[in-house]
Protein 1
Amino acid sequence: MIRIVIADDEELIRGALVALLGLETDLEVVADVADGAGAVTAARTHRPDVVLLDLEMPVLDGIEAARALSDAMPTVIVTRHARPGTLRRALAAGVRGFVPKSTPAARLAEIIRDVAAGERYIDAGLAAAALTEDESPLTPREADVLRCTRDGLATKQIGRELSLAHGTVRNHLSSAIAKLHVDNRVAAAAVAWDRGWI
Amino acid sequence: MTQPGQERPRADADVRVVRWSSVASLWLVVLVGGGVQVLIGTDGPTTARTPVLVVLTAAATVAALASIPLLLRPAGGASARHPAVLALLVLAAATWVVALVPSATGSAWSFTLAIAGGTVGCLLRGWVRVTVLAGTVVLLVAAADARAEPAELVLVGTLALFALMPLSVVWIHRVVLRLEAARRTASDLAVTEERLRFATDLHDIQGHHLQVIALKSELAERLLPGDPERARAELSDIRMVAQAALEDTRALVGGYRTVTVAVEVRNAAAVLRSAGIDCTVRIETAGMPDPVGALFAVAIREAATNTIRHSRATTASIELLRDGDAWRLTVWNDAPRPSERPGTGIDGLRQRVAPNGGTVDADRSEDRFTLLVRIPVPARTAVRP
């Protein structure tokens, strides 16, 4: 028997998934929760074989929850449509399955079985989207300073964080701003995040 | 990539440049006019009124300099009763009268009057404007020496030019503002049209699907007590329609972009690396025609997707190189999975490259899966160095 925890903030979808996966003879839904933090708690309590996580959830999103869990158990991310960079982030977080929400429950059950058996499953459509993304024009350092900017750090704090001189941080920021055709560093960080470059 | 938001600040800056260069050129006209007036006016015997005229000219010039920016305000010209304009008018008229009345000194002291008339003309509209400008020219001609020498005529002509110059500059500035406003309206309209098109597409797709789902659900509900088998068939249809609706929406929102094959290879390597697979890349695609690149892109997508999906690989490699008269793509990973459905993707790939004379070989050995795609260099490209 494969034991599953399901996390999805949409009650109707979660209810339907619990019911449909519960119909499979070899699957058992041991807990269903509405947010990422709940998923982490439930997974640590119930020790399931697979954790099914919605990508967009309150408190912790699916990838953050997966990062907390994937050392201990396999996680599968279910998403409506993936933003650029999401697949890469998910894989880096140790996610073992990446499937669209339109996957029929019977197919999802097969994927859960594969993942529980130690396989990895990535939906072909989502993978193709990830392979046709625009390439980042940013250097690694520019990406670093934008990542810090997105975390709300001031240029001085960024310098301390990355062990860079204040002037160097400003140079990286202004070249990133120029490359992304925006007016300020906050907008640059937002654009870079949106395209999956940081 | 250009976004509509980026063009605005640039366009705003351009409009500011036009405004301030217009102001600067009119300031120059005023300074030249005032300077010439003093130079020509004082060229001759100095009388008691000369200092008065010089002072009046200086004051009128200052008033004119203050008035110019009022003409070129972004929101349209100021009122003709603005203090600076009134001061300009009074001072210029005073200069003209003082120079003319006791014993005429010719047109020399008329420059400030020409500028004052031109400035006021810009702030008025319709027939009033025409009257003021024509009146100014008449006054200028009237002040000219009756026994006009040719040089004097040139002077009158120059004065008329000074009277008409401000209007032409201000007019051009207004046209620029109007064009910019029109461009803005057009770009807003384009955004609105795109939204409308998107909304229509979405409604066409979802409206139709939802209608079918609603009808079939109703049918299934009624069939359920008497004919559960038919109700089940209806429910299965409903599921398929909903599925189609989801796919259609994804296609509408997503719409894969096309990137070069080099970018695709690097993206594939990045995705494989984030999955913890050590991936080496070698690419040399110089001179590769786009259609060939597109075929390789399909092959790379297939191979990369397979690597992350089906194998527990730890090492992989992607090589796309020119090999004599063909391009050769080699993708391998170190953990082949015994595939249940052998090579459906590879068969598809083979069919796609066959028309270009390409070949596809997949080799599954114990510890390695290798995909080899060869596409010959098209004849025309091969001739080129």
Protein 2
Amino acid sequence: MHPDDSPIFLQLAAQIADDIVTGAYPEESAIPSATEYALFHTMNPATVSKGVNVLVEQGVLYKKRGIGMFVAAGARELLLTRRRAELYPNYIEPLMHEAAVLGIAPAELARMIHDQLTLQEDNS
Amino acid sequence: MTNAITIRSATRTYGRTRALDDVTFAVPEHSICGLLGRNGAGKTTIMSIIAGQDRESSGRVEVLGHTPFEHAATLSQISFVRDNQRYPDDYRLHHVLRIAPDFAPNWSAEVAGELVAAFRIPSKTQIKKLSRGQLSSVGIVLGLASRAPVTLLDEPYLGLDVTARGLFHQALIRDVESQPRTVLLSTHLIEESASLFDRVVIMDRGRVVVDSDSDDARQLAFVMSGTTDAVDRLVAGRPVLRRQRIGGLASVTVEGGADDGIRAQAAARGVQLAAASLQELVAAHGESEPEIVQEKAGVRA
Amino acid sequence: MSAIIPTVKLHLNKRETTFGVPLYITAVVALVSILISLVFWRSGSQPGTTGWIEGSQANPGILYALVGFLAYLGVQSVATTFPFALTLGATRRAFTGGTLLWAAIASAYLTAVFAVLTMVEIATEHWFVGFYIFDVYVLGAGDLTRLIPIVFLGALTIFTIGGVFGASWVRFGARGPQLIAVVLAVAIVLTLIILIPYAASIFAAFQLWWLAVAAVVAITLSSTGTWLLLRPAVVR
């Protein structure tokens, strides 16, 4: 898994959440079993369960007794809402901090973002 | 959660040598616990005592609620193959596979067969003449196929090639899933096995220096790197485990969690701060002089 | 659950060592005995004469030839098997008991083989040509009531003495066997010092069953010694 400061079970939860957002695991479909994750990532099965449980508590996954873990209806929207909320602290704040260190004025930063967006629109 | 292994103030002396010094830790049932530390830290000694092959000079060791030494019912629940395991004269693989089930009530011939095939252990060669990696493989077969509720693996990777190490990991995970058990595993290949552990115990010079949940182990030390001046000012008064220097730069491993205060100070002075990985934590403890650490801890308090 | 029976199985794991090799050695010694008889024959001795029979029956080769191997078996039954037995999960107590039981089984096997061969030797009038291999003085001169205790107790004594040497090696390393040898030598000399004035009367009163008692004492002491040495032994 990624070398990250957060505990491994949170890294796994983030990975599964990512896969739900990208559509790799559609809503109401089953995700791989704990053993499959453990074998794939060479990870302690208990750590896998801990990571999966984080998503269960958030209502992203739910358990079908005797069958396995499923992606809840509305899970994708839930995750997207949360990630939108995290856009500011996770990306915009550090960006502004870095810009300040480099002496880039807010107006210039705004212009740079605008230019980049236009460039991407042209390319697509 | 109940503990499969409980060790309280265990000390072991051989003549004037103190192999274990007031060792206390517990391994919860059904966990995979990494036992880490340098050579001579006391890992094999404590495993040997847990398996009833050795006995503590003082203190108390309990496995599944009993003192293992000479306790037949408990010993049949434990599997311990040491890294330099000795076998009787002229033994070959089939001798080992034939007798092991008589001692291990949960023995799985299926697991044994799969592992022997996967590791490609030659069955006609005398065990004495096997290569280091093949010898390790025999130990892994004994340890995993026993399906002992308490399985102790002492340096199972010695001499194993990268494919065999992968096979071992897969077999361990699969077997622990189908037959929950408590595993205590000692190794020097920390990066490779770190994600297997849900608990870690780090030993140094016969003492336990870290006994922690794997998730919390990331809060136990942090590494600061930057100019020597800035780093030195930041670490003043904190317990330093390890110091590395290059040119005017320093990288220092500090014991304890990084609080918001020091994070802010580090950011302000252009010092990078990151949680120590398990490998860095073990390396740092192996290098530290305990007296100095205590002194610094004293200054801090 | 006790590991005594599994320990016996552990010792019998290499079946050929316990059951095969003593047979091979016996066969080789029988062959050598025959060759020696042939030498006597060629040098003018006649099979069937009193001199021939006495000469052949005095040959103790068959017994001595096995002593070395039985002692090796006894030593390795503890020295190299003990660490592996502990790894498998045997207690020291069960290991000592199982090792003694295995030694008894191996001794009984040897006794049975010798008894059968002796009976065959007598029934075939000494292999049809007057060769004495098993019908010899040290084995009771064809008397099974003597041969059985001699072979059984003799083999068991050698096994257990070998075992205690092996145990001393496990416990103290290379110094262990030296230590036991010194203790034994001192004990024997002390016994002699005490008994030598009465030697003549002791020899006069000597009874064969004294040897049996001595063997039982030696077996008991060796087994107890093995247990006492192994109990605090540490595998490293």
